[in-house]
Amino acid sequence: MIPTSVNEQLRQYGERHFSGRVLALVDGIQYQQHTGQQLTPENDRTVSLFAGTNDMALAHAGPWLFDPKTTPDHLANLRELEQARPGVIWLITSESLERQAAKLRPHLNTRIPDGRSALLRFWDPRVLHALNAVCHGKSERDLFRAAEAWHYLNEGRRFTINDNGIY
User: Following DSSP, what letter does each residue of the chain receive, concatenated?
Assistant: First the structure.
């Protein structure tokens, strides 16, 4: 079951926009450790954000997008995983699964002060929470504009982030 607060915000989003959906952003290694199953791509159901990138070899452990409407068999696992480990973020978006993945892929890597590239684990709720706390400028909030809203648990509390911050 998708958390009630996420469904309520989706309903409100639908009142303001023509269409909206909930997608789950899932940590592949957390999912595998929790369920004992390795994720695999399924058209219109699950997609790896590492697909088509230099990090494709890490796809099993990296970020995945699920469409809960087409993966009801995974929904119970996602709900349990969210409660047990930092591995699920619920996104409200108007994008399809593939288009949402395309909007998130540019944020997988970031430049660190010495000029090197580093993987930005924004699919981990703890990292997302910390990023929101330090990203204040317009360009720093590009990641958060990749979806209408980001819902997640951090230390047992549910948070929602949008382009303007947390609520």
Answer: ---HHHHHHHHHHHHHSS--EEEEEEEHHHHHHHHS-----BTTTEEETTTTSTTGGGTTTSEEEE-TTT-HHHHHHHHHHHHHSS-EEEEEESS-HHHHHHHHGGGSEEE-TTS-EEE--TTSHHHHHHHHHH--STGGGTGGGGSSEEEEEETTEEEEEETTEE-
pLDDT tens for each residue of 10-58: 556 555 555 689 999 999 999 999 999 999 999 889 999 999 999 999 9
15, 31, 85, 101, 146 from 104: Cα distances, Å: 25, 19, 22, 5, 6
pTM (2 d.p.): 0.86
Domain boundaries, the chain: 4-166
